[in-house]
Amino acid sequence: MVFEGKSSGIWSVKPDGTDVQWHALLAGDNPVEVDFTPQGEVIGVQNLYYGQPRGDTLVHWLTGGVYERVDLPHIIAGLPRTLPTMPVMHNFGHVAVSGACFWKSFPENRGADAPLQFLVTHFNTQRVVRMELPGKARPTGPSRTSSLNSPTLMCISPMSSRLRTVR
To answer: Span 50-59, mean pLDDT?
Structure first.
């Protein structure tokens, strides 16, 4: 047994089903998708990170991190705490994040200092949002949340293949 409890989390396992390990655990619902920075940092999206009001979020999943939710402290009771409050990179509000990935072929992805482009899909609003993350700096700690640029909305119509960018 690796972990017994009600916490959801970010896990890894070898293709043959062995070596199950937890990367991060949380008192929340539905971590949806993760992708990796060039340095191997795990960035992902999480539905219902905040309960009242609802907040669906972009999260930097720190190795060994235990992510709290104010209204569900019993879920992570007894687990070691990494920080008093774990960092959330961005709160989208009630959008139902449904997927995410780095845009690796983005034209401006040149050099170590170039910002990383992260795409997040929102089910409720039927949008794809492009987020810029710092390229060289490791996005950790609560003070880093301000380094996230304002999102550019990229609206993709399901009825056509046209892409419209809204700033």
So the answer is: 89
